[in-house]
Amino acid sequence: MAVGDNNNLQVLNALDLAKTQLYHFTAIVIAGMGFFTDAYDLFSISLVTKLLGRLYYTKPDLLKPGTLPPAVSASVTGVALVGTLAGQLFFGWLGDKMGRKKVYGMTLVLMVVCSVASGLSLGSTPKGVMTTLCFFRFWLGFGIGGDYPLSATIMSEYANKKTRGAFIAAVFAMQGFGILFSGIVALITAAGFDHAYRSPTFEENAALSTVPQSDYIWRIILMFGSLPAALTYYWRMKMPETARYTALVAKDAKRAAQDMGKVLQVEIESEESKIEQISRDETNQFGLFSWEFVRRHGLHLFGTCSTWFLLDIAFYSQNLFQKDVFSAVGWIPKAPTMNAVQEVYKIARAQTLIALCSTVPGYWFTVAFIDIIGRFAIQLMGFFFMTVFMFAIAIPYHHWTLEANRIGFIVMYSLTFFFANFGPNATTFVVPAEIFPARLRSTCHGISAAAGKAGAIVGAYGFLYAAQSKDPKKTDAGYPAGIGIKNSLIVLGCINALGMLCTFCVPEPKGKSLEEASQETITGEA
Asked: What residues form the membrane-spanning segments (predicted)?
């Protein structure tokens, strides 16, 4: 087998130059199913929050269906994001300390257990049920958090340099299918229950519009997320540790050569003497909190953190509050005109259509083009078009709310999603897995991803309050007056423009080996 640079470790060269083969696709599916589950679990909650409001917070004398109080709504949608942020930092650090593979199994078990447990949330009072739900969703988020740095790092370290971007992006693209699948599960569940338990709309009979059996709907939807993750556990455990971790961090050349020899089905020399020389090389010893790290990678870490932070403010506020935007333009009928189950169906239908038409295609456009036009160009272009479409929606906002222009509004809204996914939503995940040294790769990816989740929390909590009407009489129950949806969208447009500027801090790793991209000195003549 042709092995390029003689100064580089043969095992790493073999991986860099390997032709695309079955093990690459196996790795994409194994890592991708984790991401499929992550997206399913994080976004399925937005399908059932209206139902939870009807089930647990409808008062007999009210003229409209119950909604979750502001603090409860923010906690139910946001607590998993808080858990994810903590998990990204903790498991990212642990992945560099213990190895990618060991930690990878832990995150999966945590996700499966908490996914099932959140569907079994019990309590004798509404507060009891919501507290249990929030508790399990925090730990579910904690497990999901670990999946971000580990999936990206494992895929980047397994991939060849020619198509590495596409492989990491393909893992992330499974998120699109997760969002789509959550919508489909909700559609099937709601349709089944609506057929089995006929009930009048809220206007016709408030008391009977929410059948007691509909309490099972949200539980089934939330618990279903554990299935794909559980199915891939065995394969996750069979994956060998990545050669870059084994050779460069654990310093076990023999094991790395054996593992990758099996995977690539070639004979690889173990080169223990080179590993010893590398470990004696002072330039590869600096830690995360050293001046050397700041000098070499400080600006890069700022770039990956700031762009992910800014992107997620816009992305999560859009995604978690899709249903509010759709209701505002009349794509989802007014709540009193539906019964509880029909409302779940209508929300799921809207989310599934957006996922099918813009979210999923956007991800796969990135997969197709990332190794051709590069990460930098896709990220810059994505932020630019997100800014343009956000302003195009926001400035003539009243125009879009009129009956005749609703389809136009949905198209514009879909295009902002398309360019988020064929843009920064995918590239912010790919780049941190490529530009940092092996011994800090998982940690730095975790820090970047946690900055993103901090943005998601700002988006999720902030948008809830900001998007409320300026007129205190028109706000949702319990909320103070906000700046209105129009002004909120203008703010999001400005945030996207700022993301475009921060993109200039991020280097382009296209076509480079991981060691070149992270400026790691991997030569035998240090």
From this structure: 22-48, 68-91, 103-122, 166-193, 216-235, 352-370, 376-395, 407-426, 446-467
Residue 325 exposure: Cα atoms within 13 Å on the Cβ side: 25
The mean pLDDT of 398-412, rounded to a whole number, is 80
pLDDT above 90: residue 370: yes
Res 462 pLDDT > 90: no
Helix (H, G, I), strand (E, B) or coil at 339: coil
Separation of CA 59 from chain center: 36
The DSSP code for 476 is: P
Q: How far apart are CA 516 and CA 52, in angstroms?
A: 51
Provide the pLDDT for residue 70: 82
- Determine the pLDDT at residue 319: 65
Question: Scanning the structure block, which residue is given the tokens 């050397």?
Answer: 292
**Cβ atoms of residues 100 and 245 within 8 Å:** yes
The CA distance from 151 to 233, in Å, is 14
Nearest CA to 34 out of 121, 149, 185, 138 is that of: 149
pTM over 0.85: yes
From CA 489, how far away is CA 466, in angstroms rounded? Answer: 10
Half-sphere exposure of 382 (CA within 13 A, CB side): 34
Q: What is the pLDDT of residues 219-243, one digit of tens each?
A: 999 999 888 888 888 888 888 889 8
